[in-house]
Amino acid sequence: MTKTAPPAATPVSLITNVRVADGRHVDVAIADGRIAALGAALPRQDAVRIEDGAGALLLPGFVEGHTHLDKTNWGLPWYRNEVGARLTDRIENERHWRARSGHDAGTQSLALARAFVQMGTTRVRTHVDIDTDAGLRHLDGVLATRDTLRDVLEMQIVAFPQSGLLGRPGTAELLDRALAAGADVLGALDPALIDGDPVKSLDLSFEIAQRHGKPIDIHLHEPGEVGAFTLGLLLDRVAALGMQGQVVVSHAFCLGALPERERDALLERLAALRVALLTTAPAAVPVPPLAACREHGVTLFGGNDGIRDTWTPYGSPDMLERAMLIAMRYGLRRDDDLALAFDCVSSVAAHACGFADYGLQPGARADLVLVDADTLAHAIVARPPRRLVVSNGRVVARDGVLVDL
């Protein structure tokens, strides 16, 4: 039996009869991949292709602020996880498994990236392992995925030293090459507990980043006082080198375990230096406090981390699910509080990562998601199929089915 090919992505010029979060019924006019107008009863005569929204809820395209596309086993047979409990156990297990199995970062990152688009995500920041065994092989695969989907998925790539910067000679040189080859952001990992010398590690990371004129996104799993010490050193360098607004601290578990006075002092510095925090809202470890971050003006946004890889069986390309998990972790129940969780995977994430022209306003890139839900809170909790996904002004998914990209 001949299998019917999915329809190709097509531009749309007008979406009629949709509802925005405040309940208003509006139309959305699109031109050259951007929102040209948003309002009631927009003119139809100039529209070449019209989509009837049928009263669906209109949302902006979602933003995945922290994932690892290169690691995923999405679509592969189930990986049986028997790895040890330590961070180093997971790192070594993954390296050996990827080499032994022939895991292909290009094929796998494309599979998961397409699933993100299908579920309404149009901007992604992904960390990619830069490893002295694999060299730039994983980066090459993800660069190919970015190129394949460049018209419908805006992707930032973080060159990430999964084994740390100092422990494996040649890592710094590989990071240099990765940034020169097209990575957008320099990654780093636990300068004290993995590298063993936070001063030397941070100095080298900032030196590499500044040499290439790139921002930094550091994984900071270090707990309590150790993490606070490392965070303080990092903030010293942000201030000294004028890198305000160019650094993200991912995870930052220490901020969820410190005494309030010490925590708040760090939050004040984070806010003043415009250093953003990323949380995946894990259930089993401390997390940066959402309310205190908002009180001090610290940007806190969300992401999945790994999805179906050797580290974890969890994760999903549905950012409405991640918003729900963030809301659950922080005890958000009111509808207006659930909206804060959605901000973590939409506007706040776009701002923190530096994705431009985002949102539901004229001039923004036309990245739109239609769902059958009464309200934003309902959409987060029910996570209905995506009736329509538009990216860069093109229909890329309809009724939960990805078009031919």
UniProtKB/TrEMBL annotation:
Pfam families named among the record's database cross-references: Amidohydro_3 (PF07969)
All residue ranges annotated as the Amidohydrolase domain in the record: 51-397
NCBIfam families, sorted: PRK05985.1 (NF004636)
Protein name, entry field: Amidohydrolase family protein
Source species: Paraburkholderia sejongensis
Lineage, top ranks: Bacteria, Pseudomonadati, Pseudomonadota, Betaproteobacteria, Burkholderiales
